[in-house]
Specification:
The complex is a heterodimer of chains A (92) and B (422). Helix content of chain A is 17%, strand content 25%. By secondary structure, chain A is α+β, with helices and mostly antiparallel strands. In chain A, a hairpin with a 2-residue loop joins strand 3 and strand 4. With 422 residues, chain B is α/β, with parallel strands linked by helices. The chains are: A alpha+beta (92), B alpha/beta (422). Chain B: GO terms for molecular function: L-serine ammonia-lyase activity; threonine deaminase activity; threonine synthase activity.
């Protein structure tokens, strides 16, 4: 499955300033592994030491926050848009 | 990696941000130069302002203007801030609420009524800070993701300070809030989704070339913007006669306001402006959007996001960024996080109006409802000095209440007497 990943400004040092990259994988976990293979170091910015999505990172597969889906096991259909977003924005 | 400013940039920054020294990650402590950034590059944690405070005394504050700029020495703003075009919010009434206290069985209760701000919500405080940051960074457009109050505050502040504005709201907001956002002449864009969808959209826009020179008050200006909530703490303490309340009830949307009021109290103690005495912080949510209260009840330190379903739309943030810090603060101070149903919110709006003449928006119904619940359950100390926040005006959420005329009669004394109204 080929997916499109929207990269936040903070992580673009890993993607040579690309705001959007392509990755492969049937689940979010696979996609992150593929990103790591192509952009070494990026996975550790998204996942903590225990392998969970960091507390202040939101990941969307399509329009769905993966916390409402299956987390890292969320299926990533061919062509889907994945967005990685800092969670600290918004609200008061 | 922190980006070092040039010497001239550093000097300009120092002038623009007064006692603010740097940005510091609340999660891992990494420090950054002051700039339009909001998340740590290492752990994505929230960046906060770190200060190097000069001499601030009660007397110097009391000599200041009758708005939030009397606390300029404690905020990331230039020394001449009071002379710049801004909405100049703050110094709103701290209402001694004896009738509400009597009804609830409390000895000492005050309502901090922020509906008295220029656009009738506490958001004027935070936006005032963001305007100064936007000015310093050279942005020309002010923007935000908003549940309504913030959109109005941004529209008004942008108009006065000479910025363009474009605010993003979830479709289906209360009509009053939409009008109050749109009347100032900026763009108001409704997004087909809830607040969390709007917030996500704004975060993506800011990472796109289209939004790179925009000042999003609650995204890339968030560290500066959020500091505005500290002024609630300063005012409450000053209005109580330079004393901290023993108990305070604060609404939770993202949780930022609660964390900053706590920060403000701690700063006052550290600066010797108030006596160091314990205070308990209570967070208030509506049941239909209560991820922080649910985590509190279940003893979790991680917030499980929810899909909001409540009339308290100004608090309807299902994925509250500062939720974990709210839990820490309420635990540390001996407080709690409590939720009330929409029916209790409406009833509490009427209770506050009936006893104190304050017409609160739904968020004020949430805090008043939680106050009542805390007293009923014996969690609050009825003898301790208590403050409850009303963060917005009931005129913004008219649809939430069903109050109306008592009777319709002919213009005659007989009709009046016959209607049994005496």
């Amino acid at each position: 499955m080929s997916v499109s990943v929207r990269v936040p400004t903070i992580l673009r040092t890993y993607t040579k300033d690309a705001a959007q990259v392509t990755a492969e994988g049937a689940t979010l976990s696979d996609v992150l592994a593929d990103l790591e293979a192509n952009y070494p170091g990026i996975k550790a910015r998204i996942l903590d030491d225990s392998g969970k999505i960091r507390r202040f990172v939101n990941v969307y597969v399509g329009d769905e926050d993966v916390r409402f889906a299956d987390g890292l096991a969320t299926a990533t259909a061919n062509g889907v848009q994945i967005s990685i977003i800092p969670a600290v924005a918004g609200g008061c | 990696m922190a980006i070092a400013a040039t010497e001239s940039e550093a000097a300009a920054t120092a002038r623009s941000f007064g006692p603010a020294a740097a940005l510091s990650c609340r999660e891992c402590g990494e420090r950054y130069d002051l700039g339009p950034r909001f998340a740590c590059e290492f752990c994505f944690g929230p960046l906060e302002i770190a200060y190097d405070f000069g001499a601030v005394t009660r007397a110097s504050i009391e000599r200041g203007p009758k708005n939030i700029w009397r606390y300029a020495g404690l905020l990331p703003v230039p020394a001449n801030v009071a002379s710049l075009p801004n909405m100049n919010p703050g110094l709103t009434p701290l209402v001694r609420a004896d009738r509400l206290a009597a009804e609830l069985g409390l000895e000492s209760l005050h309502v901090k009524d922020d509906s008295a701000n220029p656009t009738h919500s506490f958001k004027d405080r935070v936006v005032a800070m963001a305007v100064e940051a936007a000015r310093a960074f050279g942005f020309h457009t002010l923007s935000c993701s908003s549940t309504g109050n913030l959109a109005g505050a941004v529209g008004a502040a942008a108009a006065r300070a000479g910025f363009s504005s474009c605010v993003f709201i979830p479709a289906g907001l209360e009509e009053g809030k939409v009008v109050m956002a749109a009347v100032y002449g900026g763009k108001v864009v409704a997004i087909d989704g809830n607040y969390d969808d709007v917030n996500r959209f704004c975060s993506e826009l800011i990472g796109d070339a289209a939004g790179e020179d925009w000042g999003f008050v609650n995204v890339n200006l968030r560290p500066y913007y959020a500091e505005g909530s500290k002024t609630l703490a300063y005012e409450i303490a000053e209005q109580l006669g330079w004393r901290l309340p023993e108990q305070i009830v604060i609404p939770i949307a993202s949780g930022s306001q609660l964390t900053k009021i706590d920060k403000g109290f701690r700063e006052l103690i550290a600066l010797g402006l108030v006596e160091d005495r314990p205070y308990k912080v209570f967070g208030a949510q509506a049941t239909g959007c209560s991820p922080v209260a649910q985590a509190w009840e279940q003893g979790h330190d991680v917030i499980q996001p929810v899909k909001p379903d409540t009339i308290a739309k100004s608090l309807a943030i299902g994925n509250p960024a500062d939720g974990p810090y709210v839990l820490d603060i309420c635990k540390r101070t001996g407080g709690a996080v409590v939720h009330v149903s929409d029916a209790e919110v409406v009833d509490s709006i009427k209770l506050l109006a009936r006893t104190e003449g304050i017409f609160a928006e739904t968020a004020g119904g949430v805090t008043t409802g939680v106050l009542r619940k805390l007293v009923a359950e014996g969690v609050l100390d009825p003898g301790a000095e208590t403050v409850v926040l009303n963060t917005g005006d009931g005129l913004k959420t008219l649809n939430a209440v069903d109050s109306g005329v008592t009777a319709t009669i002919k213009p005659s004394l007989d009709a009046f007497k016959d209607a049994g109204l005496l």
